[in-house]
Amino acid sequence: MRLSKELKYNIVFAILLMVVSVTWEYSNDIIFNQSTDMWFKPASIVLFTTMHITYFSVYAINYLIFAPRFLKPNKIIEYCLSFVFMVFCFAGIRFLFEEVLLLALFDFHNYNLDRPNIVAIYLTDSAVYTIRPCLFSSLMFLFFRFNENKSKMHQIQLQHQDAQMAMLRSQISPHFLFNTLNGFYSDLYEDKPKTAEDILKLSHLLRYVTYDAKENYMPLDKEIAFIKDYLYFYRKRYEHEFYVDFRIKGKIEGQKIPALMLIHFVENLCKHGIINDADQPATIEVNINQHSLEIKTENAVDPSENYMDKGIGTKNINKRLKLLFGEQFTLYSKTQNNIYQSYLKLPL
């Protein structure tokens, strides 16, 4: 949908460029009293057509391939190298049309093939000609990405505001709640230190959800600590019949991820999966590398229930991820042989 819309605008822009180019050159010929008869000769029309086919071929290559990959502040060198490649593309396409196909089909060509420096001529011309399609296609690409990112940021802000309002509506005097928990902690600290420690963990868990996780991104180590506290209370509930294997691989320090993203998968597993069967233990695995984070969950499910209709709401998670990362993430879930699996991979 996005590409089809952009394609329409790029086609209109291409037509305007051709009209402006022809008008400008034709006007210059008239101003400087040069003959305009050549404009209506078949050879001139054919060469004009081949030049613009080459022009917009390079325009498309830059717009669809090189600009999305290299038109970034940290990849300027790569983009400059890609420009060199596009010069060769421009020269190669022009040479194919003007010195091979036209010669074979119509017995004429643009330059004299017998000239020993014919390749250098095409490369020199193309180095100049390539600047315009690269410049115009880059400007169009940046224009669309600017509008797209502005729209995404607006949607993220609206979603964040909605989430904050929902959170505020769900709060019942949070200050009173935390003061009460702190009071329980103080009263029980000496007589029942274990219970007091549980109350402190609960206070930390609620405080994180209520106050700390207000930003779009949070430190990964805090998100992991929150998950561990969450699992701690399920372990307390099931006592010795809680079988969830939580594994972390990679460095968690210094990384940030969308706030309260991972907990959805953990909550889904704990609330709707079978987590008290020693023969089928549930697993949560978080893998962190230099550029991405993965979370995988696997748990047995009750075959009498439609597990896919429960839990985190994949559509909502998918929508949030698209706003934050575009298409640069992987999210899926499936149920097979009464085993539910979910997977998320997102860039860091």
Descriptive keywords:
348 residues; 5-stranded mixed β-sheet; alpha+beta; 13% strand; elongated; 2 domains; 10 helices; two-stranded antiparallel sheet; Heat Shock Protein 90
Ordered list of secondary-structure elements with their pairings:
Elements: H1 2-31, H2 42-70, H3 76-106, H4 118-129, H5 131-170, H6 174-188, H7 193-210, E1 217-219, H8 220-238, E2 244-249, E3 256-258, H9 262-272, E4 282-288, E5 292-300, H10 314-325, E6 330-336, E7 339-347
Parallel strand pairs: 2-4
Antiparallel strand pairs: 1-3, 4-5, 5-7, 6-7
Low-confidence stretches: 35-39, 308-312
Largest sheet: 5 strands, mixed
**Total number of domains:** 2
Q: Please count the helical segments.
A: 10
Average the pLDDT over all residues and give the rounded result: 77
End-to-end Cα distance, whole Å, is: 27 Å
Beta-strand level of the residues, as a percent range? 5-15%
Instruction: Summarize the helix and strand pattern as letters.
Output: HHHHHHHEHEEHEEHEE
Q: What gyration radius follows from the Cα positions, in whole Å?
A: 31 Å
Q: What's the β-strand tally?
A: 7
Helix/strand-derived category reads alpha+beta
Tertiary shape: elongated
Q: Tell me roughly what share of residues is in helical segments.
A: 55-70%
Describe the strand arrangement of the main beta sheet, using strand numbers.
Answer: 2-4-5-7-6
